[in-house]
Specification:
The chain has 15 helices and 15 strands. By secondary structure, the chain is an alpha/beta fold. The protein folds into 2 domains: about 270 residues, Alpha-Beta Barrel (TIM Barrel); about 120 residues, Sulfite Reductase Hemoprotein, domain 1, CATH 3.30.413.10. Helix 5 runs parallel beside helix 6, helix 10 runs parallel beside helix 11 and helix 12 runs parallel beside helix 14.
Length: about 400
């Protein structure tokens, strides 16, 4: 539903809420809920992590293999390109061999959307910039309604309608919003409301502005992303800045980090962004010392090795790897498991308590052993959140830890 006047509720939700935790459900933008397959989207559901395959969809085996890797990484909704009818006809076979909802990415030819629906996809993405004929939209909406298949109106700055570009001169935030809302109306005119919206640009500031604007005008769930963000390092930073601001303001119901490279990196980056904001946690969060002149041990290979060994973990666990006496003991105490390392020796912590003192060559095995013990407990409890850390006061002080960490 398009909200034609300002809604005080939205104004409150989208303001900067000083003093409140972001993870508080009251801070999430309130939206209606739809389902992509079995995954709830909007309506207070956890923010779902999406990605897109980078294979030729006509190559079923390669596409399925990549989707299975994405599943393992934690992807919850996957989108595939549908450039032609042959690709569309492979969607049913792909869907049978995967375990997460499948979304068909449709451009230019509405008939590909109709075929995707026949193949049993869980969702459609339509680009208003190249599928805009009212009769074509009507036919797709009718077919999707019969199967209860949601449609994402996916607006991109690089493919806006020519009429809108002429009006605004460039793909501004207002141009993105107008494109999206005009197609919302087209679908609503057909009685179709299983709608999700995205407004993406490669410029984070334009993207942020567009989402802020549309979040005050409609209560449909929003898929957020910075399109064509770039290679993993710079693209990851750009995405973290843009998406982090939106998520902090309670905007966003699904997320994709668009990177040039291995799509599993998109999934990992998305979880790191969500985890940094306290919205969702998956896998190991490693806190490590940046190193300075006080360091008496080279932590870089230690951090790399621990990160490698914990890469496939799904249980959320907070791991600290610290290398000096200033912040090391304190950070290690706050983690689920951690080490505060000095010259040839380290203190091993678990849940705020010193477990033992270990030699440098024993640091990694000891840390992994303690982390594994915590993981087993968490799996047994079937918990999806980090267990509460010990509330008992810690008697040890930094003064007593300092010589242990150094000598």
């Amino acid at each position: 539903m398009i909200l034609l006047k300002k809604n005080n509720n939205f104004q409150t939700l989208n303001a900067w809420n000083v003093g409140l935790r972001l993870s508080d459900p009251k801070l999430r933008r309130k939206t209606r809920q739809i389902f992509i397959g079995r995954v709830p989207v909007g309506g207070g559901a956890p923010i779902a992590v999406q990605s897109m395959t980078k294979t030729d969809t006509r190559d079923v085996s390669s596409t399925v293999d990549q989707i299975l890797l994405l599943q393992k990484a934690g992807c919850e909704i996957v989108r595939v390109a549908v450039p032609d009818r042959k690709a569309a006809e492979k969607l049913g076979e792909i869907k049978k061999r995967i375990g997460i909802p499948l979304v068909a990415d449709i451009h230019f030819d509405y008939r590909l959307a109709l075929e995707a629906i026949e193949q049993g996809v869980d969702g459609l993405r339509l680009n208003p910039g190249n599928i805009s004929h009212k009769d074509h939209i009507t036919r797709v909406a009718k077919a999707a309604q019969e199967r209860r298949i949601p449609i994402r109106i996916g607006v991109n700055a690089g493919s806006l309608e020519k009429t809108i570009l002429r009006k605004y001169g460039h793909p501004s935030a207002d141009a993105l919003v107008e494109s999206a809302l005009s197609h919302v109306r087209l679908l609503e005119d057909q009685g179709f409301d299983l709608i999700k919206i995205s407004l993406k640009a490669s410029d984070p500031l334009s993207t942020i502005s567009a989402y802020q604007k549309i979040s005050r005008l409609t209560d449909y769930p929003l898929h957020i992303g910075i399109t064509e963000a770039g290679p993993p390092f710079s693209g990851g930073i750009k995405s973290a800045v843009g998406l982090g601001i939106l998520l902090y303001q309670g905007i966003g119901d699904t997320i994709r980090v668009s990177l040039t490279g291995d799509p599993t990196m998109e999934v990992k980056a998305a979880y790191h962004i969500l985890g940094a904001l306290g919205l969702r946690h998956r896998g190991a969060e490693i806190i490590s010392c940046p190193l300075c002149g006080r360091s008496e041990i080279n932590l870089e290979p230690v951090v790399r090795e621990v990160e490698k060994r914990l890469a496939d973990w799904t249980v959320p666990i907070h791991v600290a790897i610290m290398g000096c006496c200033v912040n090391g003991p304190g950070e290690a105490r706050e983690a689920d498991v951690g080490i505060a390392a000095g010259k040839g020796v380290a203190l091993l912590f678990r849940k705020g308590e010193i477990i033992r003192k270990v030699k440098e060559k024993e640091m990694i095995p000891a840390l992994i052993e303690e982390a594994e013990a915590i993981r087993k407990i968490m799996k047994k409890e079937n918990s999806c959140a980090i267990p509460k850390r010990s509330s008992k006061p810690i008697k040890r002080t930094r003064q007593t830890l300092k010589p242990l960490a150094i000598n």
